[in-house]
């Protein structure tokens, strides 16, 4: 926790610096929701096909789902949403001719049902 899943239009593959986004995002998320960078996980899903608006090929999307442990108040979630959006905008270069929508949704992971196991194996 947090678990972050980023879906993005394939037309943004070259313009969206995903690794830099994840590396910049983790400290921001950790500070905003009071966790550690080590707890953050970001996965990317390239969308080969998406229908946006009227379906014209000049539309593209980046959608970010950030799931955090339950118990945060509305102000904290709003701050996280704004911070994630800001970091995403900073890591997406303009693509001439594309109309890009960036969306963010913050959801709760129920503390009663969320479980984690982590191991470190010596090299």
TrEMBL record:
InterPro entries, A to Z: 5-COMe_2-OHmuconate_Isoase, Tautomerase/MIF_sf
Coiled-coil residue windows: none
Database matches in Gene3D superfamilies: Macrophage Migration Inhibitory Factor
Name of the protein this chain belongs to: Isomerase
Species name: Streptomyces cuspidosporus
